[in-house]
Amino acid sequence: MGKKGKFANASAEIGEAFKLDPKSPNAFAYRGELELLTGAPQSALQDFEAVLAERPFNSFAQAGRDAAKRALEALQSEAHPAPPASPAVAPPPASPAVVASSAPLGIRVALVVGNAHYTAQPPLKNPPNDTAAVAAALRAAGFAKVVVADDLSRDGIVKALHDFEDDADRSDWAVIYFSGHGVEVGGQNYVVPVDAHIKSDRDIADEAVSLDRLMASVSGAHKLKIVILDACRENPFAAAMRRTVSMKSAARGLAPVEPLRATLVVYAAKDGEFAMDGDGANSPFAAALVKHLAEPHVEIGKMFRLVTADVLGATDQKQQPFVYGSLGPEDYYFRP
Q: pTM of the entire structure?
């Protein structure tokens, strides 16, 4: 593909980003970069100024603002170069504009759900903190849209997934993060809504939402689909749940999965084990995830290996996150 084709693709991606968020500072910054590359510095100047003029200040768009500020300063210094220090010394050549990247990252969207206040169970301490931290990290990484929802009922989860599908179908990346209770029954995994009342293992399909449903919601993304479950906590319904003859219910952890290519399913604790809520402001898994999401130039496979190492260290080797799925030869980066 030639330069014209690449520029056309980039322009189309930026247009989709504006559809998702017409005021996105990152979209304005990326368009400014593209205008610099295609020889339209005046238009680029207007876009960079639009990024910096946005109010109220939104810290989640800091990456776009930083790029716009650097590029704007470089453009202005080229337009009004400083006078030479001495007539006998020639001024140095002007520096090229510094931009965050040479091309847009693609459209990336996320749904972040935290269930803490269960009707039939004691509350979990950290899901609200975890969702806030993960959402902030994704926005800082340049995600075009991040939807956050806490304490969802079963109907609420289904509606959130249904609404998110429209964004996922138009995106390059689609990510779902869930923090709360998760259970496995009969080899199937489920996330638990706050209004669940599970008296028998036969109630699961009616009271909870399957992992397959979450995976279906991200399936329309063009490049990468990720479902992250900080939801492998010990089954809170196990002690009182009545078992049927036809179904086997696990007391702890989730069952392994085999996602298709370009799809990752990430457990905070590998199959058959359970995750800790933690004593700090965030769960051990969420804390490690947020830390490594902020690191640039780390390929996604290595990033999750770093998360695993941190969680093992923080839990005295008792909790091991696990990633299921294969991405093939292409490299992916949250923060290039």
A: 0.68
Residue in the block written with tokens 């933690």 = 278
Same domain, yes or no: 146 and 248: yes
The arithmetic mean of pLDDT across residues 39-62, rounded, is 58
pLDDT at 16: 67
State how many domains the chain has.
Answer: 2
- Asked if 116 and 127 count as a contact pair (C-beta separation under 8 A), the reply is yes
Range(s) of the domain holding residue 248? 108-324
Please give the single-letter amino acid code of residue 20.
L
275 in Cβ contact with 289 (< 8 Å): no
CA atoms within 13 A on the CB side of 252: 10
Residue 210, SS3?
A: strand
pLDDT at 266: 94
Regarding whether 244 and 152 lie in a shared domain, the answer is yes
The two three-digit tokens of residue 227, written as one number: 């479902």
Query: Token pair of 29, please?
Result: 């910054």
Q: Examine the domain organization and report whether 224 and 124 are in the same domain.
A: yes
Residue at a domain's end among 79, 100, 127: 79
Rounded Cα distance between 144 and 138, Å, is 9
Q: Token pair of 257, please? A: 């999965």
Higher pLDDT, 159 or 42: 159
What pairs with residue 112 in β-bridges?
148, 177
What secondary structure does DSSP assign to 304-323, as a single string? HHHHHHHHHHHTTT----EE
